[in-house]
Write a structure and sequence with these properties.
The protein is α+β, with helices and mostly antiparallel strands and 108 residues long. It is built from four helices and five strands, in the order βαββααβαβ.
């Protein structure tokens, strides 16, 4: 099984909870992140409407929270995601969930 992280970009609000949870769980310093939030925008849609998009990507510091998942727990970023836009699981299973929406998938 190849473990993967599915990110539903449509629901990410850019709150940074995943970054903070990862740093705390792994004991990483402020200049190291296991998952990174990216902001795209703002884009002006109309005179009064602007749009931002957010998405996260795992980094080389991500260990998929193997010590947590070995105990049956969720990775820290997934557990603390306030919108539930992160999901971890088998790559092939998560690929099937990607159609028809704004989702990204990363092997971890």
């Amino acid at each position: 099984m190849t473990k993967a992280l599915l990110v539903d970009v449509a629901y990410c609000t850019g709150c940074h909870a995943c970054e903070v949870a990862c740093q705390k769980e792994r004991g990483l310093s402020v200049d190291k992140l296991g998952i990174v939030l990216h902001k795209i925008g703002p884009f002006q849609i109309t005179d009064k409407k602007w749009q931002y998009d957010f998405f996260v990507t795992p980094t080389a510091f991500c260990n998929a929270c193997n010590p947590r998942t070995a105990k049956g727990k969720l990775p820290s970023c997934v557990q603390h995601c306030q919108t539930g836009c992160l999901e971890v699981g088998d790559l092939e299973v998560l690929k099937a969930k990607m159609s028809g929406s704004k989702k990204l998938i990363f092997a971890i």
